[in-house]
């Protein structure tokens, strides 16, 4: 119950903020049901909230691919991250995709891995959410969650979250987010150098 | 030479007759003002009727898509709930125009029942449900399992073959119905349930604690489900076939009920042909130029229909698996519109 309430509250907050900012965000939205959720530094979800169910729960699925086992394939449209296992299998994790996650597709490598990363919201996020801290040390309640994997030389990363109810949605900030249990699980399975393929919805 | 004349005449007559026969179904449906669609009386995710008499489900949405293509109105469908044993006779006797009732496409059914399948809307197949606590990654780890199964079904034969081929021991626990299988599993009389994957996802919802159980990704049999029509009407066969292909192509091209207005302005040749803004591909089948637009606007593309009825946005949460597009890890593939 508290989950829904907090989500609604944040949705309302997000909507109010977006309206206030007059957000040029409209032009950048992925054209999908974007969830205007604001970041909640310091918020610590309950274990029940962190337990995903249904399609977004981590599971092994049938997956045909010519990519080698160990490759990560991110399907932004379906909100899934696949870790290729070979033999037509993949481990599938539910993800939330931030606006930045829709801006590019193609091939990257995991360049760096970090446990409990610090958070420095970029200027454009500060502009949208002026009350955000300029710096937050890594730990529970940090919006980047328990782990981060940096993609190539970009500022983009696969990371955890302290807002598990954003999984399965297009959210207003962040790149590719997983619940903390999942990002820890993934982190332990993939070394630096892992190939990451990002697939976007086709353009009309 | 003289002998040839009657034969030629007979052939010509037969030809004329078959042309007349060919366009009957579409005309009948149009004159009637609605499509008559045979569906499952009650199958979670595929066809169910709510308290207000409204039908919904994956198979129901296919009926609605055919109606949308013809009438530009997905509600112009009369549903006929059919049992497994009555379904093909209902097609043959012209009681229904199309059968959309989780039916597996097999050679025998086309040979013996006078029907023809128009394609595969859902690749199903036999799978295994196990407690998560057993921590299995693969069906090859099922050695020594107690398996609940309905006796005398192909399901039983399939699982026995699978276990024996992989040198695994098993104990069969016969249960007469799905309800009995669920009760036996809940009571711990067996630790594996097996039937078609779609059925297992529906069964899982009815277990004491659904989330403590998982369906292994292994599929051990081929159950390609699809719509079926009569064999005597090529035009109708083509319409029903291309409704399915249009929905799959729409997903592949990024055309959904949400993006349809943008798609109508698209300059991409493949999108324009689907939208009917370039060419008139529905015309030879008696359909309007915007036939596919009507389907996508009124019902959705393949992904939308899958997700809301049986997939990520439904209670069942069935992974796309084999039903993912060929370009995204699955085998769903539609010939191009051009």
Major β-sheet strand ordering of chain B: 10-9-11-8-12
Number of helices, where a helix is a run of at least 4 consecutive DSSP H or I residues of chain B:
13
According to DSSP, the number of beta strands of chain B is: 14
Q: Globular, elongated, flat, extended or rod-shaped: what is the shape of chain A?
A: globular
Please give the share of residues in helix of chain A: 10-25%
Structural class of chain A: alpha/beta
> In the CATH hierarchy, what is the class of the largest domain in chain B?
Alpha Beta
Cα-to-Cα separation, first versus last residue of chain A: 40 Å
Q: Quickly count the domains of chain B.
A: 2
Provide key terms for this protein.
heterodimer; A: 204 residues; alpha/beta; L,D-transpeptidase catalytic domain-like; 12-stranded mixed beta sheet; 26% strand; globular; disordered N terminus; B: 338 residues; D-Maltodextrin-Binding Protein, domain 2; 2 domains; 3-stranded parallel beta sheet; 13 helices; 39% helix; 15% strand
Secondary-structure map:
The complex is a heterodimer of chains A (204) and B (338).
Chain A: H1 2-21, H2 25-28, E1 34-35, H3 47-50, E2 59-62, E3 72-75, E4 80-86, E5 89-94, E6 96-98, E7 106-115, H4 123-128, E8 147-151, E9 157-159, E10 170-171, E11 176-177, H5 180-189, E12 195-199
Chain B: H1 4-22, H2 24-32, E1 35-39, E2 48-49, E3 55-56, H3 58-71, E4 77-81, H4 87-92, E5 98-99, H5 107-112, E6 115-117, E7 122-124, E8 126-131, E9 145-149, H6 154-165, E10 170-174, H7 178-186, E11 192-196, H8 197-204, E12 213-215, E13 223-225, E14 228-230, H9 234-253, H10 260-264, H11 269-275, H12 291-298, H13 302-309
Parallel strand pairs in B: 1-4, 1-5, 9-10, 9-11
Antiparallel strand pairs in B: 2-3, 6-14, 7-13, 8-11, 8-12
Helix pairs in contact in B: 3-9, 3-12
Report on this model:
Chain A is of the alpha/beta class and 204 residues long. Chain A has one domain: L,D-transpeptidase catalytic domain-like. Chain A has a twelve-stranded mixed β-sheet, covered by helices on one side. The longest helix of chain A has 20 residues. The N terminus of chain A is likely disordered. With 338 residues, chain B is of the alpha/beta class. In chain B, the strands form five sheets. Chain B has a five-stranded mixed β-sheet with strand order 10-9-11-8-12, with helices on both faces. Chain B has a three-stranded parallel β-sheet with strand order 4-1-5. Chain B has a two-stranded antiparallel ribbon with strand order 2-3. About 3% of the residues of chain B have low confidence. At the A-B interface, strand 2 and strand 5 of A face loops of B.
């Amino acid at each position: 119950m508290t989950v829904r309430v907090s989500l609604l509250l944040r949705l309302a907050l997000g909507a109010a903020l977006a309206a206030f900012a007059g957000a040029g965000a409209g032009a950048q939205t992925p054209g999908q049901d974007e969830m205007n959720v604001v970041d909640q530094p310091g918020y610590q979800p309950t274990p029940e909230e962190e337990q995903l169910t249904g399609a977004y729960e981590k599971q092994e699925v049938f997956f045909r691919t010519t990519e080698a086992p160990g490759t990560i394939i991110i399907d932004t449209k379906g909100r899934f991250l696949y870790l290729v296992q070979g033999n037509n299998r993949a481990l599938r994790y539910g993800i939330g995709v931030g606006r930045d996650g829709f801006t590019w597709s193609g091939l990257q490598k995991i360049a760096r891995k970090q446990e409990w990363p610090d958070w420095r919201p970029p200027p454009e996020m500060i502009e949208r959410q002026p009350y955000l801290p300029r710096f937050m040390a890594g730990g529970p309640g940090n919006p980047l969650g328990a782990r981060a994997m940096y993609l190539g030389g970009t500022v983009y990363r696969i990371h955890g979250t302290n807002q598990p109810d954003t999984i399965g949605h297009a959210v207003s900030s962040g790149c590719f987010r997983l619940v903390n249990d999942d990002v820890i699980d993934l982190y332990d399975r993939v070394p630096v150098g892992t190939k990451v393929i990002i697939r976007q919805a086709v353009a009309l | 030479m003289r002998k040839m004349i009657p034969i030629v005449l007979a052939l010509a007559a037969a030809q004329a007759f078959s042309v007349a026969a060919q366009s009957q179904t579409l005309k009948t449906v149009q004159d009637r003002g609605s499509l008559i669609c045979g569906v499952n009386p009650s199958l979670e995710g595929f066809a169910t009727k709510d308290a207000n008499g409204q039908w919904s489900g994956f198979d129901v949405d296919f009926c609605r898509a055919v109606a949308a293509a013809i009438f530009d109105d997905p509600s112009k469908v009369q549903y006929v709930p059919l049992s497994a044993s009555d379904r093909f006779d209902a097609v043959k006797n012209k009681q229904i125009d199309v059968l959309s009732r989780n039916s597996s496409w097999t050679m025998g059914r086309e040979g013996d029942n006078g029907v023809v399948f128009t394609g595969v809307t859902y690749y199903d197949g036999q799978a295994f449900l196990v407690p998560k606590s057993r921590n299995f990654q693969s069906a090859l780890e099922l050695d020594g399992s107690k398996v609940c199964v309905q006796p005398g079904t192909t399901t039983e034969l399939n699982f026995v073959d699978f276990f024996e081929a992989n040198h695994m021991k098993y104990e069969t626990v016969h249960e007469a119905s799905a309800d009995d299988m669920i009760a036996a599993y809940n009571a711990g009389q067996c630790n594996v349930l097996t039937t078609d994957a779609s059925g297992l996802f529906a069964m899982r919802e009815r277990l004491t604690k659904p989330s403590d159980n998982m369906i292994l990704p292994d599929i051990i049999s081929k159950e390609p489900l699809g719509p079926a029509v009569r064999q005597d009407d090529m035009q109708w066969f083509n319409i029903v076939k291309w409704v399915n292909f249009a929905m799959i192509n729409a997903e592949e091209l990024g055309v959904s009920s949400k993006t349809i207005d943008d798609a109508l302005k698209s300059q991409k040749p493949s999108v324009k042909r689907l939208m009917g803004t370039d060419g008139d591909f529905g015309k030879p089948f008696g359909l309007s130029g915007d036939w596919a637009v009507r389907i996508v606007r009124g019902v959705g593309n393949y992904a939308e229909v899958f997700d809301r009825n049986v997939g990520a946005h439904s209670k069942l949460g069935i992974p796309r698996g084999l039903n993912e597009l060929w370009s995204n890890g699955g085998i769903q593939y539609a010939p191009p519109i051009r």
